[in-house]
Design goal:
The protein is mostly helical and 205 residues long. Helix content is 62%, strand content 0%. The protein is globular, with a radius of gyration of 18 Å.
């Protein structure tokens, strides 16, 4: 299964965002440590060959924030100006932004560096908007759960294995999930958990 997942990761595609989304899924499911060199190679390739990826395409907020966060998480410098198009003329973020996009921006804003006021503003704005959005009856239970989890503990500051366990449940509810990847993540989580339990038993003795 590990080799099958790796083949999906390194497969050629014309859609760089789809590749980045897959890498994000591997990280969120807690299995990216199996493919560190391959992931680095794929991200580097996209970053070098498509430096204007977010500028030349009219992506929505969710996509822009996702690409921004993945690049930053892997040490690539990407300017926060990519979020300017989601602001009004007065410099404030648009009130009409959808909840999924706000959630992605909220998670991305935690990877700000000193002096990036736009991300500080984004964090404050999205937190308020997400809290208010929880009262919306039209929101899916799937997205509702993700927002609650994020507000309680943002991804960037969470404990990786705990975040992976939470995301496995979330990914299982995704309409377009990859069943093989989901099964691989579950098996890997249980395997790592067993190792931890065995180590704790040995230390306790």
């Amino acid at each position: 299964m590990k080799e099958d997942v790796r083949k999906l990761l390194v497969a050629e595609t014309d859609d760089s965002v789809e590749k980045i989304d897959f890498i994000n899924t591997l990280c969120r499911l807690g299995v990216s440590y199996h493919f560190e060199s391959d992931i680095e190679e794929q991200i580097h390739k996209i970053f070098v060959t498509e430096p204007d990826l977010l500028d030349k395409n009219d992506y929505d907020l969710h996509t822009v924030a996702l690409v921004f966060r993945v690049f930053r998480q892997h040490g690539y410098k990407i300017c926060c100006d990519v979020f300017d198009k989601f602001k009004e003329n007065d410099g404030k973020f648009k009130e009409s932004l959808d909840a999924k996009g706000l959630l992605s921006l909220y998670e991305a804003a935690y990877l700000s560096t000193p002096g990036e006021d736009v991300l500080d503003e984004a964090l404050a704005f999205t937190k308020v908007q997400l809290e208010q959005s929880l009262a919306a009856e039209s929101m899916s239970s799937h997205l509702h759960k993700q927002i609650i989890n994020a507000l309680k503990q943002c991804l960037h500051r969470g404990i990786p294995r705990i975040e992976a366990r939470k995301y496995i449940d979330i990914y299982e509810g995704e309409e377009y999930r990859n069943e093989m990847l989901l099964e691989f993540a579950k098996l890997d989580y249980n395997r790592v958990q067993f190792i931890y339990q065995r180590e704790l038993k040995d230390i306790s003795k």
